[in-house]
Each structure stands twice: as C-alpha cells, then as structure tokens.
Amino acid sequence: MDIPIPSIKPIYHPSPTTPTPKSKSVHTALQTLHLQPHPEGGYYAETDRHPLRIPNPYSQDQSDTNTNTNTNTNTNPNTDTRSLSSTIYYHLTPDSPTSFFHLNRSRTIHSLHRGRARYVIIHADLATHDGPAPVTSFVVGPDLDKGERMQWVVEGGKYKSSYLLPDMPSENGDGESEGLLITEASACRCISRDTVVPGFEFEDHEYLSRQTMERLLPEEQYRALSWMLKKD
C-alpha cells in the first residue's frame, strides 16, 4: 500500500441533481468511441467479441451458487459456453468518477490510454476463517517515475474498485481531469494445463455487498472503503 487505507477518499463529487459539465475531450471520447453508461460506474463499449464459443469454465461454480441460494440469476441462455474472448473500452469521467467494487470470475488485463486513477483490490480469494482479506491499492497513470502503472492485471475472484484522479494534481491533491480511458480484456484461470480466455458475461460478475465487505474487512477498513460500494 502506497497510502494508508483511511486516506483513500474520492476527489470528485458529482451532484445527483445537477449534471457535471463534460469537457470537450471527454465529450469527444464518449461520442467517437460510442461509450454508454456502465452499471458499475463510468462508461464503456465492447470493441471485440470472438465468435468462437468454448465450454464455460464456471458452469459448476454457478450451479453450486444457484443450489446454495435456491435462486437462478442467469439470464444468458448459453450458460454452458462462453465467447473465446472479449475486449472493452472503459472510461471514468468527472461526472461518473467511480467504478464501484465488483468481482469478475475471469482474469482481466487492463491497458492505459490516458488519465489517472487509483485502484483498490480486496483479495477475497485469500481471506481465511481467522483473518481478513488483504487489501492492495495502486495508481494507474503515465508517470512511471512515480510508480504509476500503464498495464495491470486483476485475477478472478477479487473485488476491484477505482476512482478518478487529477491529471496533474495540486499540492492538496485536487485538480482537473480529462478522464481515465483504458482497455479491459477478459482472460481466465487455468484449467488443467490449458489456459482458456472466455469473453465477459454479466453472469460472471457480481457487486460487493455491504454484508460481504463487513465479513471480509476489519471495521476500520470497512468504514474507510464503504463509499466505494454500489448504491442500492
């Protein structure tokens, strides 16, 4: 951790009633790349989905989940297969500056195009019965001298969130931003000796609930990070 968890706080506070004006470059990106609002925050557009379908590596996990909860949340009729791969543009902007905590089953590879943001990862897959889940955080951006990352990987089974940072922060940490623009490509865990690359499906995605966060984190960390939960 490059900063204490209590120091992880939002920079931009868009009003729920008054729209935040979009800069020319943000407006151009949204229009040119055909970006639409993403349910987890920010904007996105799928840019590629391989036509080949492969066996769904998560079908047993989903079956177990549905059995345990007695509900079936799958909406995709092709639950037995997945696209070989998929890629999206993802854009955080001052009017939608936060990607709320969510988990993907697949490994996701991120590449920076422009902007800066802080990522926070809750390693739910590393939690134990007698210990909390580890939390890591890092900044993505173009300043390699300061340790900012231009490419990063988040493994499946971890909750990730991110929030927009200024392009050139002032001494007190605020400043203007033209938004964070990245590419996300889905990849998944190894099965036997073969690595498969299934495309993203919302059935393989879940938001972090307040109850799960309370279970995974100590109270102090929960209080510090709960603002990054998706609102009901």
From TrEMBL:
Gene3D superfamilies reported in the protein's UniProt record: Jelly Rolls
Residue ranges annotated for the DUF985 domain, each copy included: 30-207
Bias (Low complexity): 65-79
Classification of source organism: Eukaryota, Fungi, Dikarya, Ascomycota, Pezizomycotina
Stretch list, region Disordered: 1-82
Source superkingdom: Eukaryota
UniProt-listed Pfam families: Cupin_5 (PF06172)
Name the record gives this protein: DUF985 domain-containing protein
